[in-house]
Design a protein that fits this description.
137 residues; mainly alpha; 6 helices; DoxX family protein; DoxX
Length: 137
């Protein structure tokens, strides 16, 4: 992978991390009980509201730091697919004026999938740990 591609992967990882961190913070600010209530109102078990909020918050931080990037990105793909099928599909690709569409979720899925399969970049804790492992062997 070229250095330009690695730089773009780092930017994509950090941007996705910031976006998910913001979504996680927003869920905590509105109150996890309210999030769970909203999940229940759309037919999703309320406890998943807590799970998703933690995944978004902790996952966002992990992506910013480049920690467990592949696993976190894979988990976020699952969350995003869940969001599309439970909350956004009925609104259509671009939304229906009453709710958001799923166009951004698709873009986020593509970024997260890239991060699942892309090589580790230098500016990440994953890279630091993989270097330590390679020097031990």
């Amino acid at each position: 992978m070229s250095s330009a591609s690695k730089n773009i992967s780092t930017i994509m990882r950090m941007a996705l991390g910031i976006l998910f961190l913001a979504h996680g913070i927003a869920k905590f600010q509105m109150g996890l009980g309210n999030v769970a209530g909203w999940f229940s109102s759309i037919g999703v078990p309320g406890f998943l509201g807590y799970v998703v909020a933690v995944i978004e918050l902790v996952g966002g931080i992990a992506l910013i730091l480049g920690l467990l990037t592949r696993y976190v990105s894979g988990l976020l793909v699952i969350v995003l697919i869940g969001a599309i099928f439970t909350a956004k599909l009925s609104g259509g690709l671009m939304g229906n004026g009453q709710g958001a569409g799923y166009e951004l979720d698709i873009a986020f899925i593509l970024v997260a999938l890239h991060l699942v399969f892309a090589p580790t970049t230098r500016l990440s804790l994953d890279s630091l740990f993989s270097r330590r492992e390679s020097t031990k062997q």
